[in-house]
Design goal:
There is one protein chain. This protein has 103 residues and is mostly helical. The protein contains five helices and no strands. It folds into two domains: 34 residues, no CATH class; 60 residues, no CATH class. Helices cover 64% and strands 0% of the residues. α3 packs antiparallel against α4 and α4 runs antiparallel to α5. The radius of gyration is 16 Å and the shape is globular.
Length: 103
């Protein structure tokens, strides 16, 4: 989110340099940001921003698609909603089985 990458896993040079401006110019400075970022992510408004950012960045923009593959969505939900949603595992199992059955 700090680099505001347009696509997950595809960091452009300008996005990386923006992250360097925000976090600092050394690995030690980047590491020192981790605890502060984790604190920020405990705030509901920041969680919502992260969720919306990940959903947008995970879409296949190169091919004009505005959806996220079920497998990817489940992985992102696990990362972003772990411990917050009691039925998350059941939901991902349901979605995966539905995908496998073609429905």
């Amino acid at each position: 989110m700090l680099m505001n990458c347009k696509q997950l896993g595809d960091v452009q040079q300008e996005e990386f340099l923006k992250g360097c401006e925000v976090c600092g110019d050394s690995m030690d400075k980047w590491k020192s940001q981790i605890s502060q970022l984790r604190k920020q992510m405990q705030q509901p408004d920041q969680q919502k921003k992260m969720y919306l950012y990940v959903f947008n960045a995970a879409q296949d923009h190169k091919h004009g698609k505005k959806n996220v593959a079920v497998e990817d969505a489940c992985a992102y939900w696990q990362m972003l909603s772990k411990g917050k949603c009691s039925y998350l595992t059941a939901w991902c199992d349901f979605m995966t089985k539905r995908l496998e059955s073609g429905k």
